[in-house]
Amino acid sequence: MTVAAPGRLSARFGALAVAEARPARRDDGRMPGPHDPRDVAIREQTIRLGQLLKLAGLADSGSDARALVQDGAVTVNGEIDTRRGRQLRRGDIVAVGGESVRVA
């Protein structure tokens, strides 16, 4: 199981969503810290957890995403979730191995 580099996009999801770089400043004017989630924009209202992991570059493939989720290595809004098909909405925060992303 491998974890992809942050921000890597798959051509497969190019039509579904676009990953965005970390903003220069947070809403409160401060610079983002290492623990602030990176925003990952989606075009639809929802995205499945496994798809988001691949889109955000947290997993290289669907099988890697499945293994991460089944092993309990993924948290959604601070709670471990083992459902790869869980529907995520804007504002949800997903974390894997110290890196977190926010659905935007």
Task: Tell me what the structure shows.
This protein is α+β, with helices and mostly antiparallel strands and 104 residues long. The protein has a single domain (11-23, 34-103), classed as RNA-binding S4 domain (Structural Genomics Hypothetical 15.5 Kd Protein In mrcA-pckA Intergenic Region, Chain A, Roll), CATH 3.10.290. Helices cover 15% and strands 27% of the residues. The strands form two sheets. Strands 1-2-8-7-4-5 form a six-stranded mixed sheet, with helices on one face. Residues 7-21 have low confidence and may be disordered.
Average pLDDT, all residues = 80
Radius of gyration: 13 Å
Structural class: alpha+beta
Terminal CA distance = 27 Å
Describe the global form. Answer: globular
Helical element count?
A: 2
Low-confidence stretches: 7-21
Number of strands: 8
Helicity, in percent?
Answer: 10-25%
CATH class equals: Alpha Beta
Considering the protein shown, what is the CATH homologous superfamily? RNA-binding S4 domain
Total number of distinct structural domains: 1
User: What is the element string, with H for helices and E for strands?
Assistant: EEEHHEEEEE
CATH architecture assignment name? Roll
Indicate the topology:
Layout: E1 17-19, E2 38-42, E3 46-48, H1 49-55, H2 62-70, E4 74-76, E5 79-80, E6 87-89, E7 93-96, E8 99-103
Parallel strand pairs: 2-8
Antiparallel strand pairs: 1-2, 3-6, 4-5, 4-7, 7-8
Helix pairs in contact: 1-2
